[in-house]
Amino acid sequence: MYIPKHFGAPSDEAIEVLIKTFPLANLLTACADEPSGWTVNPVPVGLFEPLAKGSRLWAHVARANPLWEGLADQPQAILMFNGPSAYITPNAYPSKQATHRVVPTYNYTAVQLTGRLTVHHDAAVKQDIVERLTNYHEREQPVPWSINEAPADYLQAMLKAIVGLEFTVETTQAKWKVSQNRPTADQQGVIADLERRQDLAATAQMAALVRQTTS
Amino acid sequence: MYIPKHFGAPSDEAIEVLIKTFPLANLLTACADEPSGWTVNPVPVGLFEPLAKGSRLWAHVARANPLWEGLADQPQAILMFNGPSAYITPNAYPSKQATHRVVPTYNYTAVQLTGRLTVHHDAAVKQDIVERLTNYHEREQPVPWSINEAPADYLQAMLKAIVGLEFTVETTQAKWKVSQNRPTADQQGVIADLERRQDLAATAQMAALVRQTTS
Questions:
Q1: Using an 8 Å Cβ cutoff, are B210 and A191 in contact?
Q2: pLDDT tens digits for A118-170?
């Protein structure tokens, strides 16, 4: 990922917050069946320790997902986490009126991790991954759902249907393209323009998509 | 991308709407400097014709972005478009109370295009790409900004600082993971749960990120 100096992440903490707030990463793995030699799968990923070289992230995918088959031992992989993004119109810049020396852009944040993947088939390891991910995602539920609520036979069948994924970090690249290269007045204009928009949250957009397929 | 039959896209139109609504794609290209051999860059992409094998999408990146350097002629590339996503708690399913045979999941939509990349250095081609992307993104502005508002010398300098990208589609894979595998009552529960949440829209989240870097 190309990252000009002025578009670096503000802090290590900001990078961890992005990963934890937008945990559905695009996982890139080698795939002999694809013309490019690579394939991409959206996968919810858990980070349960400080992010550094050697730290590990956890996930699981359907056993029927062929991504884990035919991989080399501990193959190279990429996790791409994408934060919020928004088109920025030149109309949002007060400087437009003064100089007209402005062009549109797109603001976004993203974290690209490179590292190595380990595939887990052991039921206890898989259950541990599922529990940690569940506890993380249920943390704000009034009554968090627990894996123990599921009947044991059902849980074992579910665990058989997945494989666990462990991603060990080698490099971290983070890009914060959030108008740092604009004068303060333009930054204020961008904030005001973004806050004026009436876009739906992802949850409301997803509700509409679920409704579309049920009608 | 692994796509079980029940998680296919509802229509070709839905796929095009996703690309046009979430145009910031992750562009995967070969990169000798990366340990994996590939790199990822978020890039706003324009689709201005029906999506099919052979149709083209358009983008531009900073000339200083090394992604276009050292590539083979018309190299393989991947564009990954991600629609809205949301964690789905088992608490949202009425069937939980009846059987407890439920587990959490993540809903999302995604479109993975594979194809070939052409890099453009010609100023006229680059200006045409910028104009088409600008006109698309400005379509809902009360007074759409036009590239002609920028002074000619400034525009030429801006065009020199970018390279144009043309992506020719070879394959399209689309995944709609939106609770189609749940009974109707559970789908209704998911919709109600998602609509109850008070998440911010991406525009409001981006406004907060811009504010963080200005304070």
A1: yes
A2: 999 999 999 999 999 999 999 999 999 999 999 999 999 999 999 999 999 99
State mean pLDDT over A98-123. 96
Which among B67, B40, B54 has a CA at the least distance from the CA of B162? Answer: B67
Name the token pair of A21: 């707030």
**Which SS3 state, helix, strand or coil, does residue A17 take?**
helix
Say if CB B82 and CB B174 are below 8 A apart.
no
Residue closest to A89 by CA, chosen among A184, A1, A192, A8: A192
Across the interface, do A1 and B175 touch by the CB < 8 Å criterion?
no
Residue the block writes with tokens 């937008």 = A22
Find out whether B87 and B106 touch, Cβ atoms under 8 Å: yes
How does DSSP classify residue A5? G
* CB proximity A168 to B under 8 Å: no
Per-residue pLDDT, averaged over A100-112, amounts to 96
Helix (H, G, I), strand (E, B) or coil at B11: coil
**pLDDT confidence of residue A215:** 65
- Which residues form the domain of A14? 5-214
Other Cβ atoms closer than 10 A to A13:
11
Number of domains in chain B: 1
Q: With bands split at pLDDT 50, 70 and 90, how would you rate the model's confidence at A8?
A: very high
Is residue A83 less than 8 Å (CB to CB) from chain B?
Answer: yes
Half-sphere exposure of A21 (CA within 13 A, CB side): 17
CATH no. for residue A105? 2.30.110.10
Beta strands in chain B (DSSP E): 24-30, 38-44, 46-47, 56-62, 76-88, 105-120, 162-177
pLDDT at position B153 over 90: yes
Which among A15, A99, A209 is the top mutation candidate for probing chain B, defined by the most B β-carbons within 10 Å of its own β-carbon?
A209
Measured distance CA(A137)–CA(B92) in Å, rounded: 13
Percent of chain A predicted with pLDDT > 70: 100
Q: Note the pTM of the prediction, 2 decimals.
A: 0.97
CB contact under 8 A, A91 and B187: no
Give me the pLDDT at residue A36, please: 87
Search chain B and give the residue with CA nearest A107: B206
Contacts of B133 in chain A (CB under 8 A): 104
Question: Which chain A residues are Cβ-neighbours of B202 within 8 angstroms?
Answer: 84-86, 199, 202
